Amino acid sequence: MKKNFVYAFADGDGHNKKLLGGKGANLCEMTQIGLNVPPGFVITTEACRAYLAKDSLPPGLMDTVGDEIGKLELATGKTFGGGSNPLLVSVRSGSALSMPGMMDTILNLGLNEDTLAGLIEQTGDERFAYDAYRRFIQLFGKVALGIDDDKFDMHFEVVKQRVGVKADIGLDAANLREISEKFLEVVHRETGSPFPRDVHEQLRLAIEAVFRSWMGKRAVDYRREFHITPDMANGTAVNVCTMVFGNLGDDCATGVGFTRNPGTGEREMFGEYLTNAQGEDVVAGIRTPKALAQMEVEMPQLYTQLVALRDKLESHYKEVQDYEFTIEKGTLYCLQTRNGKMNAGALVKTSIDMVDENLISREQALLRIDPEYLEQLLHPRLDPNTPVKPVATGLPASPGGACGKCVFDADLAHKLGNSGEAVILVRKETRPEDIHGFFAAEGILTSRGGKTSHAAVVARGMGKPCVAGAEGITVDVNRRRAVVGEQVIREGDIITLDGSTGDVYIGAIPTLPPQFSADLKTLLGWADEVADLRVMANADTPEAASQALEYGAMGIGLCRTERMFNASDRLPIVVDMILADSAEDRQAALDQLLPIQREDFFQLFKVMSPNPVIVRLLDPPMHEFLPTESDLVKQIRNLGIYRDVIRGRQIALASIPGALDSPEAKLSLSEEQVSEARTKKRRMLQKVRDLEETNPMLGHRGVRLGITYPEIYAMQIRAILEAACECGKQGIDVSPEIMVPQVITSQELGRVRTIVDETIARLEGECGHLIKYKFGTMIETVRACTRAPKLAIDAEFFSFGTNDLTQAVFSFSREDAENKFLPMYNTQGILQDNPFEVLDTEGLGQLIELAISRGRAARPDLEIGICGEQGGHPESIRFCHAAGLNYVSCSAPRVPVARLAAAAAKLREREY
Ligand code: PEP
Ligand code: MG
Prior knowledge:
Helices cover 47% and strands 17% of the residues. The chain is an alpha/beta fold. It has an 8-stranded mixed sheet. An 8-stranded parallel beta barrel has the order 26-27-28-29-30-31-32-33, surrounded by 7 helices. It has a 5-stranded antiparallel sheet with strand order 1-2-7-5-6. Helix 16 links the parallel strand 17 and strand 18. The site of phosphoenolpyruvate has 10 residues, from strand 27 and helix 30.
């Protein structure tokens, strides 16, 4: 059967976004639910793919398009290319997923000298007609004919300067006519042919250009950055829609609205409009628009209609909508709607509110938020107590505080940002081609444009702070500076933005950690009720544990005890322990460490009570606690020089009568002290050389250390169990779990278990009550996965250490892979993701499933979790849920993300 490549808005399936694109499907849907949409039709994404495959439009497509144009002529009473009542159309892109500004659009198509004359006659408004004409020539020239904007802008600026006006609105019909003529000349000069007069030819070229824009650099970059695969969106549709004009006089307007405030989530009429203007004026930020509230005063009747439109959109789509409208001579048209992009705070608030309003269910509320977004809520805020005054205030376009070096173009922002510098992208206004600068910047500042300008929309989508339309700042990109009153901000100067208030500061302002809103608590409470997986945190200190608790962690899934050894009061003792030549010396150091570790664990258990705390015994190779060989060699050399200086100084002082008794003479270390320090460093150097391994991560670490130096593990086990005993005495309910790292055989586990059993036997008598604890193992070697049933004999729980396990399964060393070839593997599609961030479900996943089934076969109540970094990643969590894990453990700021992801995994169960 012949494929249908074209659908009228009245006929297309509003649910088929893959075929019709999001915009096209919504135009169909809106038409079919009775909203006032200008008539039009959609050319499908299949047609786009066919065009891109053969570099020519599918046969017969333009005939069908011609038929549809005929229907538009009938519906509107206008004629395409006709002189007296010309039909003009917009030609817009729109793929299955919204990619704001990434692809091309052409407006006012259908204008030529004849239809222009007709338009003038019909509207009696020469200025309007020439304005439409010059816009069309430029846009068509740029999009369909590939002519740079600069080539047109030059002429435009010349006329504006000559006339002495700043805004376009100050130009009269004659000026615009002159500009249009110049633009036609530009096209002729640049392409070698006159501007196409035939309106059908215009339409064909425009459709082809929109199709091509799917493969344009901007769009391709955007898809890569946001991981949009062909599965999700494949090709762009083309929407051909009758033009309606918001710039036909003062009873006309154009605007954009959100059904709720996308910055706060508040249910209110939110948006901006301009009277006597065209849509692009609002979005491009060329004129600063008015808030919708003003419309209630200026055009009360239309405002009432707009409120009704807003209500209908929301009650139909059951989602916050971002819509565009135009008022032409007192008639309101809805031109577009799509799901509104909001920051995480607004998403959370609207989820709660829409459930309260019975608009959506709790499940829908949980599923409408991408869990990754929640991390935005953990972004720092500027400290409100800092006594500084803003130098300028713009619109609070995307919340959060950001601080960095001021940079005036996207390329430089991209370069500096990617080299690790914090930068703020500062522009008059941004355009889609600046997108790479957004990715690399901490925040965005523009001097023009409103809350729905490009900068605002894109920054909000990315969760980056943005201040838009800070008109007090004059940005001079060419001179690489911005001027605010008397102050000059040069490129490289530090500035701070507050995207929540719109304030801009010179210099750096301290930030405060973000806080959990009551709404977020509610939402995550619903998530916990739904989810099967528990979410634990990787935390090593009582402070980190408190924070994790605040984020809703249900326990600690991994306490890396080695991190407790690094504090300045412990490290010297740990070093003594490593340097010890005999078991007695080592025991002496361990005896000093014991009370310190016991106190650490006691505090940790107390904070987390009654939740479980999984404590991992020492894992890293010993040399990690010692300086590097080259540092030691340097220190020894410097100490030698210092010792010689002291010696020389003493000799010199002795030669000056009475000098040795002066107070200054005593202000120095003695030669003996320095020599002693030097001797210790030499011993350390010797130890470092003894401990040197070719591949330490595969060397003497983890349980292997515990077997060679059982006294170390014995000290840690004792500290854990004594802390638990102390908690018991104080009535604190604790659940410690002892975990052994890097295990490969049941014998290793058996040896450690013996130490635990002996310690318990000794302690329980002293303690006076039973000590509740569990014993388990990390599964982070391939052999451990295959030997799961044996390990499950001693282990009551498994925790997949997917950091090490990924290295083992891929035979990658993480640092080398991430620094050398992994990014290239990802961009070339050899590997879809970085397996250290996203669990490799296809490869490693199989090993995990094998370990789970074999482990549970041996011990049905085996508790199983994951504590590698992937444990906080939503897709990986989905796998963990499906694989039947009991918990995931991740860093504290990922806990909210993981809680929501765990609920989503449960709710989406039937999809996999
Ligand atoms: C792991 O290997 O996944 C793990 C949690 O241990 P570490 O990152 O400390 O090696
Ligand atoms: Mg590990």
